[in-house]
Design a protein that fits this description.
The protein is mostly beta strands. The chain has one domain (about 10-180): TolB, C-terminal domain (Neuraminidase). Helix content is about 0%, strand content about 60%. The protein has no helices and 15 strands. The strands form 4 sheets. Strands 1-2-3-4 form a 4-stranded antiparallel β-sheet, with no helix packed on it. A 4-stranded antiparallel β-sheet has the order 5-6-7-8, with no helix packed on it. It has a 4-stranded antiparallel β-sheet with strand order 9-10-11-12, with no helix packed on it. A hairpin with a 5-residue loop joins β10 and β11 (about 130-140). The N and C termini lie far apart (about 40 Å).
Amino acid sequence: MPEAVIPGIAVQGGSAWVLSGKGPRLWRLRLAGGAPARLALPLVTSPAPAQAHGTAVASGFGAVWVLTDLYAAAAPSGTRIGPALLRVDPATGKVAAALPLADLDRPVALAIGASSVWVQGWQIHHDATASVVVERVDPATLRVVEAFDTGGDADSHMAVGLGSLWVTRPTTGDLLRVDADG
């Protein structure tokens, strides 16, 4: 599994799951030993303008979660290509479900905790400005239950702990605390 860039790693179901920086792949490394397994992610590579890839990986709620930038999903007007959150079954290594992220233009980060999967990404506005948006996803129903704008800080990061979601705003020096319990 020689890779120069690894966007993320998660541990679930007796395996380490390593996101490839070279395209739509997820590596499974069994912690008990054995050869690495390369799993292809069902992402769009053509006619997309650039090769699709996973942007983040995390584990929790009995699943491996992969955030992608280009995923083909059925829509009322045909096929919609855009960002998605994939739930991977760690027992089979296959995508069990997908949630198209219609309100995000570029997904960047995942956090797991407080009974939710948290997705962070860029939303481009009609006036060409952009902001960082966090969407809270119910892992059981795979539905967005809350979304909020955290500003336009490109270097923002997030984590879950102590009953809250924490989001950094490096340009202002702020740390945003969102009550995750309600």
